[in-house]
């Protein structure tokens, strides 16, 4: 009896140790976040083991587990018409509010889901229910893009899928079919989906063949650059659940089809050292000592290596490709972009990606609405 008690107490202590995280006092719902993080960490450890044993790619295994958890939450019901179809060969799920006879043309949102270019889908309960809510509350047609994922494809395929589906939808005949007003179309996405939404906006605003333009982009804690993993928010939140700095670096390596051996070098910005001249050139466009307000810079110092590993950018040239890293676009491109909404969270490695993009867009005379949540975290 006594020994059972000791074992139980030890187990409880171990569990508490595993689950408990010191979190900033500003985080709302800390226990919910800790539980989510412990679940996600356990799943990731298991998937790394599966990967190590060569049973499956760790992200494929993780996506499978997330899918299984997602099924516990049933898709919500309502009065929308939901159709799975193909837009120029790309899978999409379209949410249409019921139309009334003689009703004016509707507004529309192209939505690109997050998940590190590797996880979940438009058909998951999570994103299905989100897009349903958006469609119902805006009385808008929502096109949720099911682009192909890592490890089946890597950059630039995810980007191409998102461009192709959006471009097809923007055709006048397709908009007419869905009774959509060509002057009221937004694009939106969260996290890696925010990365794709930002990249698609840049691409389409420069494409003279696209006559129906996007009216608005809405980016929710977007991923925008892989050159500096030591922005103040990366330094401050490097161990923050649900997205640690190391996990984000690995998502980038997977997206750009690079080598995991580079991860530790990239953590200390060895890939954008001063002897990697091309990378240094691009880093000037995301110089956070001038782009971020001092209140966010706090006492963090830029991490710039004099001698590093220029071979990383040579092996992963996509690190410098603006279609992967929209924050690196030149001002002349930013000037063409539509009105922009950006959401950023304090307790998120990606906070400064969003903040720097907002500042660069403002400097390019784009109308920007920035929502900054001090008590929120990624995901
Ligand atoms: C626009 O269309 C023309 C003719 O189809 C094509 O040659 C050109 O590459 C297109 N431009 C872009 C930016 O796709
Ligand atoms: C970044 O901005 C600061 C302050 O404006 C400036 O002193 C510094 O030289 C800039 N660094 C780069 C790499 O452009
Ligand atoms: C960073 O680069 C320097 C210079 O090549 C090298 O000595 C160091 O080991 C590298 N650090 C990591 C973590 O890759």
TrEMBL record:
Q: How does it sit in the membrane?
A: Single-pass type II membrane protein
Keyword terms, alphabetized:
Cell membrane, Endoplasmic reticulum, Glycoprotein, Hydrolase, Lipid degradation, Lipid metabolism, Membrane, Microsome, Signal-anchor, Transmembrane, Transmembrane helix
Does the keyword Glycoprotein feature in the UniProt annotation? yes
Q: Determine if Lipid metabolism is one of this entry's keywords.
A: yes
Q: Where does the record place the Alpha/beta hydrolase fold-3 domain?
A: 109-263, 319-379
EC number(s) from the headed UniProt entry = 3.1.1.71
Q: Which Pfam families match?
A: Abhydrolase_3
| BP GO terms, sorted | ether lipid metabolic process; lipid catabolic process; xenobiotic metabolic process
**Active site positions:** 191, 348, 378
Q: Which InterPro entries match?
A: AB_hydrolase_3 (IPR013094), AB_hydrolase_fold (IPR029058), Arylacetamide_deacetylase (IPR017157), GDXG_lipolytic_enzyme (IPR050300), Lipase_GDXG_put_SER_AS (IPR033140)
**What's the chief localization of this chain?**
membrane
| Reaction(s) catalysed by this chain's protein | a cholesterol ester + H2O = cholesterol + a fatty acid + H(+); cholesteryl (9Z-octadecenoate) + H2O = cholesterol + (9Z)-octadecenoate + H(+); a 1-O-alkyl-2-acetyl-sn-glycerol + H2O = a 1-O-alkyl-sn-glycerol + acetate + H(+); 1-O-hexadecyl-2-acetyl-sn-glycerol + H2O = 1-O-hexadecyl-sn-glycerol + acetate + H(+)
* Any one GO molecular function term: serine hydrolase activity
A single Gene Ontology CC term: plasma membrane
Q: Where in the cell is it found?
A: Cell membrane; Microsome
The text of the family note is: Belongs to the 'GDXG' lipolytic enzyme family.
Name of the protein in its database record: Neutral cholesterol ester hydrolase 1
Organism source for this protein?
Sphenodon punctatus
């Amino acid at each position: 009896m006594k020994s059972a008690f000791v074992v139980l107490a030890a187990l409880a202590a171990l569990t508490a140790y595993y689950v408990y995280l010191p979190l900033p006092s500003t985080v709302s719902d800390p226990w919910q976040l800790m539980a989510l993080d412990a679940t996600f960490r356990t799943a990731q450890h298991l998937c790394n083991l599966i990967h190590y044993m060569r049973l499956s790619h760790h992200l494929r295994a993780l996506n499978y587990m997330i899918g299984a958890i997602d099924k516990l939450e049933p898709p919500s019901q309502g009065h929308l018409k939901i159709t799975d179809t193909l837009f120029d060969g790309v899978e999409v799920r379209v949410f249409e509010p019921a139309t009334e006879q003689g009703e004016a043309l509707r507004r529309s949102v192209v939505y690109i889901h997050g998940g590190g270019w590797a996880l979940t889908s438009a058909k998951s309960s999570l994103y299905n229910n989100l897009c349903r809510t958006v469609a119902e509350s805006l009385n808008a047609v929502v096109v949720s893009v099911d682009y192909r994922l890592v490890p089946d494809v890597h950059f630039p395929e995810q980007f191409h899928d998102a461009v192709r589906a959006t471009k097809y939808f923007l055709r006048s005949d397709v908009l007419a079919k869905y009774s959509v007003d060509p002057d009221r179309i937004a694009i939106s996405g969260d996290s890696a989906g925010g990365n794709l939404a930002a990249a698609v906006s840049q691409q389409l605003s420069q494409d003279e063949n696209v006559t129906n333009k996007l009216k608005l982009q809405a980016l929710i804690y977007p991923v925008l650059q892989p050159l500096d993993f030591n922005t103040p928010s990366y330094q401050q939140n490097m161990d923050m659940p649900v997205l640690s700095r190391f996990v984000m670096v690995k998502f980038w390596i997977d997206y750009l089809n690079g080598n995991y051996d580079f991860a530790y070098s990239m953590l200390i910005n060895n890939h954008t050292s001063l002897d990697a001249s091309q990378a240094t050139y691009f880093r000037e466009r995301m110089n956070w000592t001038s782009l971020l307000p001092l209140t966010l810079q706090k006492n963090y110092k830029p991490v710039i290596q004099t001698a590093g590993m220029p071979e990383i950018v040579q092996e992963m040239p996509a690190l410098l490709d603006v279609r992967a890293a929209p924050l690196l676009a030149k001002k002349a491109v930013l000037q063409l972009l539509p009105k922009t909404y950006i959401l950023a969270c304090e307790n998120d490695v990606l906070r400064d990606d969003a903040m720097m993009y907002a500042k660069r867009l403002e400097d390019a005379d784009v109308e920007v609405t920035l929502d900054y949540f001090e008590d929120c975290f990624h995901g």
